[in-house]
UniProtKB/TrEMBL annotation:
Organism lineage: Eukaryota, Sar, Stramenopiles, Ochrophyta, PX clade
Keyword Acyltransferase: no
ANK repeat start-end pairs: 140-163
Keywords noted in UniProt: ANK repeat
Cited PROSITE patterns: ANK_REP_REGION, ANK_REPEAT
Protein name: Ankyrin repeat-containing domain protein
Pfam families per the UniProt record, alphabetical: Ank_2
Amino acid sequence: MTAAINSHVQCITDLLRHDPNKQVLATFGDGVTALMPSVMAADHGHTDCVMALLQHRPVQQVLATFGDGVTALMMAADHGHTDCLMALLQHRPVQQVLASLGNGQTVLMPAARRGHATVITELQNLQQSPEEQVLAPFGNGTTALMMAAEQGHTDCVTALLQHRPEEQVLA
């Protein structure tokens, strides 16, 4: 996991040469699986590490969650790491985009809150991107559009209004 956090792609590559399935699926004492390196690499924007890790059991990695349901895609969106986001979306994009935390937070919400319009645009450019994402409410009823507007991210507001604008404005 520390190799992924610190962008040591050669270490990751070397480790994966030795029984990659065991490396990718190893469990630590606290029950955390080694699938978390893809989450940590995405969190830190290390696209090369994400791509190296996705060479082994990619579906399990992109669908893996940690904490309260956080995925690698959510971490990449939260920090505006578009290259990591695009690498992750090569595997099961619909399932990843549909994932939400227990409180209803979707992958669009952190991107909207933090002003990552490029991430929002990439997510909405997916042919399979479900339009329900733009209307999905957070636990308190707040939508991605409301989050972007509250923070003054006009580029995000513009991007979000490309899908079902009437329904969003009335939400």
